[in-house]
Design a protein that fits this description.
This protein is mostly helical. The strands form two sheets. Strands 1-2 form a two-stranded parallel ribbon. Helix 3 packs parallel to helix 7, helix 5 runs antiparallel to helix 7 and helix 8 runs parallel beside helix 11. It comes from Streptomyces glebosus. Pfam families: TatC. Keywords: Cell membrane, Membrane, Protein transport, Translocation, Transmembrane, Transmembrane helix, Transport.
Length: 319
């Protein structure tokens, strides 16, 4: 039986022992995996339709026309399955990829729910915004990778000599599709991660902005490595949206820092930096006399004697 860490008494500051964190991580992972597996099983029933949906644009772009004879105007290719187990393996890969993409709202929410206890109460209100922005970004990156596949395939097949024929092994083709869809779906989450770190007080907008040269270079290198072809057109189509999203995230972070500074002038200070103190002397109001009474027993009984001779109203003369 799974024991949820949420059923225990909650700490007002979101603190939990290590065992509770591990149980929470286990439960969140289990829910994410179950959602992916359920959609994967459903995708197996619709495997033929999904396979045609994935390969349709590529075949339309570079596929050879059936029954065509004579010289071809441009190189073409055919998608083939090599080996006895190839169709079954391809079905598993394609169905699992469909499960990961379609279940993205579930595992993105589970990711946020695992991190939320470490945030302050006023920061948890961004949970729905995180999921609401994360899902479109992930699906947008996946769709962009899918949209550039015909262009990528045409560029690669165009390098084939005129007297050669092309065969696309289906397992290799779906590996490329899976890699591009998942990698670019996750890459589109980078701006959201930066915004999340900024709202959590880990990074400031100025610091993120100072990394822009390295970020643009890293995104370009990433696009070159993730795309099967190295042509500038495909790299630009994949890298440009990520760069735009990065600068959009920087703008949101700077705006959030400004809003936070208005509400708290010391919000931008580090933990070991002292805040400015106003040491200007202020006016002192009217002094009110305070009556003092004898509290000691000997004072109350009049036995103080000469010891009280030098006191006035309960105070020494020098005071």
């Amino acid at each position: 039986m799974l024991k949820s860490a949420r059923k225990q008494e909650k700490d007002p500051e979101g603190r939990m022992p290590l065992a509770a964190h591990l149980r929470e991580l286990r439960n969140r992972l289990l829910k994410s995996v179950l959602a992916i597996m359920v959609i994967t099983v459903i995708a197996m029933w619709q495997y033929d339709a999904i396979a045609h949906f994935v390969t349709g644009p590529v075949i339309e772009s570079v596929g050879c026309t059936k029954g065509a004879t004579g010289p071809r105007d441009h190189p073409c290719a055919q998608v083939v399955a090599n080996g006895l187990l190839a169709p079954f393996t391809i079905m598993l890969k394609l169905s699992l990829t469909t499960g990961v993409v379609a279940a993205s709202p579930v595992w993105l929410y589970q990711l946020w729910a695992f991190l939320a206890p470490g945030l302050h109460r006023h920061e948890k209100k961004y949970a729905l915004s995180f999921v609401g922005a994360g899902v479109p970004l992930f699906l947008g990156g996946a769709y962009l990778a899918y949209a550039v596949l015909p262009t990528t395939a045409a560029a690669l097949v165009g390098l084939t000599p005129s007297d050669w024929s092309n065969l696309f092994p289906a397992d290799e083709f779906f590996d490329i599709v899976t890699r591009m869809v998942l990698v670019f779906g996750v890459a589109f989450e980078l701006p959201l991660l930066l915004v999340l770190l900024n709202f959590g007080g880990v990074l400031t907008g100025r610091r993120i902005m100072s990394w822009w040269r390295f970020m643009v270079l890293g995104i370009t290198v990433f696009a070159a490595l993730a795309t099967p072809t190295g042509d500038p057109l495909t790299m630009g189509l994949l890298a440009a949206p990520i760069v735009v999203l990065y600068f959009g995230a920087v703008g949101i972070c700077l705006f959030n820092d400004r809003r936070r500074k208005i509400g708290n002038p010391d919000a931008g200070l580090s933990d070991d930096e002292a805040s400015e103190l106003d040491l200007t002397p202020g006016e002192v109001g009217e002094i009110e006399p305070v009556a003092s009474g004898r509290m000691l027993p000997e004072q109350a009984s009049g036995e103080a004697g000469e010891r009280d001779a030098g006191r006035r109203d309960g105070y020494d003369d020098f005071t």
